[in-house]
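Reminder to self: tokens first, then the designed residues, so the page reads top to bottom the way the pipeline ran.
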């Protein structure tokens, strides 16, 4: 595992973005696994800036998002479809038909999960996967449990995840209770993984994921078993690591 300890959020964002820049420069047809939330915003802003300068071309790449809230319409301001469009896709030249998110409104959720796994497989697998970390160590929406979920699946969100996400909604009652997420197998099959973390509030999760035991009670701990993981964090987020 490679660890980059950056001074602050902006430095962390630029460093993580530079890895995606290099990936697309070396392979313009890359399959990118993308994430949502507050942490990737700086990364996406940097990628947009490079694209506007003519330094970065997204026209041949494919994007596959980690997850989506279940039963939240795509046009809802807090859907991840909306998030990706507002914060990245509408600012770059990626083709709409090459951008994939789970169908939040699918009538048959299990069939949708199987379809999404097929999308990943038919795309040739993910070349570079971006991840954040939840406060409880979740990756994607893979919550702590008794075993590692394998394929794309419907998950009931933990109370701590609902609490963390309530700031994006008018009230905690509006936060969806379920999501469709890539499973651990999907994530671990990515050829390279970049984990971006920022802030003191993530320090304990970082410590547990990267220097604690590998256990499904800390889903992100499985990343210790991947042979090409890069952790990019600011000083606060990495403050508890024994480096």
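Designed residues (243 positions):
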């Amino acid at each position: 595992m490679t660890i980059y300890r950056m001074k602050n959020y902006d430095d962390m964002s630029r460093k993580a973005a530079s890895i995606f820049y290099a990936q697309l420069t070396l392979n313009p047809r890359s399959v990118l696994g993308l994430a949502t939330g507050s942490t990737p915003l700086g990364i996406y802003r940097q990628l947009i800036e490079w694209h506007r300068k003519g330094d970065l071309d997204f026209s041949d790449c494919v994007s596959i998002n980690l997850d989506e809230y279940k039963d939240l319409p795509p046009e809802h301001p807090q859907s991840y479809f909306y998030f990706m469009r507002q914060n990245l896709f509408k600012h770059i030249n990626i083709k709409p038909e090459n951008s994939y998110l789970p169908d939040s409104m699918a009538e048959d959720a299990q069939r949708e999960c199987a379809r999404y796994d097929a999308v990943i497989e038919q795309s040739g697998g993910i070349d570079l996967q971006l991840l954040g970390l939840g406060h409880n160590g979740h990756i994607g929406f893979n919550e702590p449990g008794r075993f590692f979920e394998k394929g794309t699946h419907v998950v009931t969100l933990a109370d701590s995840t609902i609490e963390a996400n309530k700031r994006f909604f008018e009230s905690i009652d509006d936060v969806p209770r379920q999501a469709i997420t890539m499973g651990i197998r999907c994530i671990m099959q990515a050829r390279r993984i970049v984990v971006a973390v920022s802030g003191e509030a993530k320090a304990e999760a970082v410590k547990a994921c990267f220097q604690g035991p590998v256990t499904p009670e800390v889903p992100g701990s499985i990343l210790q078993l991947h042979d090409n993981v890069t952790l990019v964090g600011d000083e606060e987020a990495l403050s508890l690591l024994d480096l």
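The first strand starts at residue 2 and ends at 6.
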